[in-house]
Design goal:
heterodimer; A: mainly alpha; B: alpha+beta; Neuraminidase; Serine Threonine Protein Phosphatase 5, Tetratricopeptide repeat; 2 domains; four-stranded antiparallel sheet
């Protein structure tokens, strides 16, 4: 099955889609990476085609590295956190399924954010609510797909699914905290080593 | 022929050159640089609106030099009153800076002690805030003592009230609006009989989550130890021709300048928190501006004096920054401790420098005159008349954002929405851009109605007939290929499995 057909399926029959991708032959790691790259492209495109009145940032304030990090870091953290939490709590999903599945769950955003943003060129600020509604709708759609993904992939009940979703978010926060902590510690450690080298060099 | 051409060229050049160097005007460099705050929170170079012209320190006057003067008032007839605080007197000067009289230096009931404010009513009565004596003294137009109003009494004032009148203005009903130093409840309204009539236009304490949290958690003992939050104090007050009161407030980042309506509501900053003065949130050595004086011209231009930077900020009637001049320093045109500002009848501005005991007079530049003229029309809503002037302003200074905005508004009013959008974009006013765009869209739709209607019909036809046809066709192709592929796959699978 090619990627386009998978995207079509996740939009039209999401529940079937998540059942189907449990067959390891149907998906590949590359598809997950491709979808995330597409998400990045869609995001950048939507920033470019935004109408003047709706621009919130000046062009020089936008950095593609920054935008990319804002996509890749939360998504990566989500995958790892969701996999870890659900594995501990008897989920059936494999990491590959979570990786690719969560990337496909963002398909509505990838597909529709550019058309929705194009609307900003023909709407005025008075009609801003339309844009807000549509873009929020996209986010809700993606969020719902992620929930469906958790439920189907791990074969959870509804209550457990909600619990896992919450735990995933908490897990992401903890991961972030540990990362910052590690960063601080490694930073200290590195500067300690550097100071040591400096001391030795001063002495001889 | 050619020689003749060259000759006329030379003559022309000479004429132009002589025009550039007008004799009799000194050409010392201006010690400060004009600038504007743009919408990206950066200070952009602009042309100076006011240039230092001359000073007046009183040494040439028969009344002698000033000593820490603190207030300057230009009477309706153009004469100047200086509250010469350190010399305990008021000096009355003519427009040509000749002494017309000295008030309050004689012994008797009219003797003043460190007067910090002076005001002259249109009927000629001179009101002096006699700060050290805690009273307001009225003098006749000739400078004779008339009467005094001592400490007002009212239960509203509270027990700890100390009266220290510093600045005052008197409205048409002869009700005095007095700034009392250290008082945070607003301006004191005192009627012509000396009766206290209530506070006016007090600053309010805004809502703060922190305070709510502290108040809910803290015990009474702890609360007693906290610093009491008081409303902010007014530092000066002035009145425009229409009788609106303008005040400056200390110790706040926003809305330091207010225009109070007769019921005490701020009409200059309706529902907004505007930063006046320099943008210390962006960059600056201080935390806050501290405006100590304000003056409003007959056309409604507001000049406010900031003590921290010693700069004067001029705003239009709507609160848009027009010019900045002055600064801290020793050169002429800079100040040591500026105390008050007042507009002279010819449009120039007089700044009273307490630290240097002198009055510095600044004249407007041609650029400022142009901006003032354009702005007056603009503020009155006569955008079309102002348009050509704003275009002239842009020739002088292409970074003058207000000009783009004003031209945009004029074009909008003239229903030239496309051009208006371009100017609003240059002025970076998204709201107005969007409004103009909406009108542009409407006009565009009307003009190309046939195309839109035709397109809509075509779209419906395509969606109703062409797309389903195409889909049906595609599906047939895909199923055909899939069955072919499946049988092929089956056959290969069969081959692979069979031994």
């Amino acid at each position: 099955m090619n990627t386009l057909q998978l995207i079509r399926q996740v939009i039209v029959h999401p529940i079937d889609f998540f059942y189907d991708i449990q067959n390891p032959k149907r998906i590949s790691w590359l598809q997950g990476v491709l979808l995330i790259l597409l998400l990045f492209v869609a995001k950048m495109l939507s920033l470019i085609v935004t109408g003047y009145a709706f621009e919130t940032r000046q062009p020089y304030e936008i950095s593609w590295v920054y935008e990319f990090m804002w996509i890749i870091v939360p998504w990566g953290a989500y995958c790892v956190s969701n996999w870890a939490v659900s594995t501990i709590l008897e989920g059936e999903g494999k990491f590959k399924e979570i990786f690719v599945g969560s990337a496909f769950a963002l398909a509505p955003y990838i597909l529709f954010i550019v058309p929705v943003t194009l609307l900003t060129n023909i709407l005025s600020l008075d009609e801003q609510s339309i844009i807000l509604f549509l873009s929020n709708l996209l986010l809700v759609w993606c969020g719902w797909l992620l929930l469906v993904k958790i439920k189907v992939l791990h074969d959870f009940e509804l209550g457990k699914m909600v619990g896992i979703a919450l735990l995933t978010v908490i897990g992401m926060v903890i991961m972030l905290f540990v990362l910052i902590l590690m960063y601080g510690l490694i930073n200290q450690f590195c500067s300690f080593i550097l100071d040591l080298i400096k001391e030795v060099r001063f002495r001889y | 022929m050619r020689i003749k051409h060259r000759l006329t060229g030379l003559i022309l050049a000479a004429v132009f050159a002589s025009g550039l160097f007008v004799p009799g005007v000194s050409h010392a460099a201006v010690p400060y640089e004009g600038y504007q705050w743009n919408r990206h929170d950066s200070d952009v170079h602009s042309i100076n609106g006011y240039i230092y012209q001359y000073s007046m320190d009183g040494y040439d006057l028969e009344s002698g030099p000033f000593k820490e003067p603190q207030d300057l008032f230009v009477a309706p007839d153009g004469t100047i009153f200086v509250a010469d605080t350190g010399n305990n007197r008021i000096v009355h000067l003519s427009m040509e800076m000749k002494v017309l009289g000295v008030i309050g230096d004689a012994e008797g009931k009219g003797a003043l002690s460190e007067p910090k404010g002076v005001f002259v009513h249109p009927n000629g009565t001179i009101y002096v805030a006699d700060t050290k004596n805690q009273r307001i003294v009225l003098f006749s137009p000739s400078g004779k003592y008339e009467k005094e109003h001592t400490v007002p009494h009212s239960p509203l004032l509270g027990k700890n009230f100390t009266y220290s009148p510093s600045k005052l203005t008197v409205d048409k009903r002869e009700v005095m609006m007095v700034v009392s130093e250290g008082n945070t409840q607003g301006l004191l309204q005192i009627d012509k009989n000396g009766q206290f009539k209530g506070f006016f236009g007090a600053n309010h304490i805004g809502f703060s989550w922190k305070r709510l949290l502290v108040n809910t958690i803290a015990t009474d003992d702890q609360k007693a130890q906290l610093a009491v939050q008081r409303p902010l104090e007014f530092s000066s007050v002035t009145q425009d021709e229409e009788g609106s009161l303008y005040t400056t407030t200390l110790a706040t980042e926003t809305n330091q300048i207010k225009r109070l309506s007769p019921v005490g509501v701020d009409t200059l900053n309706p529902g907004r928190a505007k930063r006046y003065g320099d943008r210390y949130d962006v960059a600056g050595p201080f935390e806050l501006s501290s405006f100590v004086s304000i003056s409003v011209s007959p056309e409604g231009f507001i000049s406010a004096l900031d003590l921290n930077t010693s700069k004067v900020f001029e705003y239009d009637k709507l609160g848009n920054l027009l010019f900045v001049y002055g600064g801290l320093g020793d050169q002429s045109g800079l100040f040591k401790t500026p105390a008050d500002i007042a507009g002279l009848p010819d449009g120039s501005m007089a700044v009273l420098d307490k630290g240097r005991n002198r009055i510095d007079v600044f004249r407007t530049t041609p650029f400022a005159d142009l901006v003032h003229k354009a702005s007056t029309l603009y503020v009155d809503g006569r955008y079309e008349e102002a348009e050509s002037m704003w275009k002239e302003v842009l020739k002088y200074n292409a970074n003058y954002d207000m000009a783009y905005h004003a031209i945009g508004k004029s074009l909008y009013k003239g229903e030239r929405y496309g051009e208006a959008m371009r100017y609003f974009k240059l002025a970076e006013t998204k709201g107005d851009y969007s409004t103009a765009f909406k009108e542009y869209r409407k006009a565009y739709m009307r003009e190309h109605f046939a195309w839109f209607a035709g397109g809509l019909i075509l779209l419906i036809l395509v969606l109703r007939y062409a797309v389903p046809l195409l889909l049906r066709f595609l599906r047939r192709v895909v199923t055909a290929r899939m069955t072919a592929g499946a049988s092929k796959a089956e056959s290969t699978w069969g081959k692979g499995e069979s031994p």
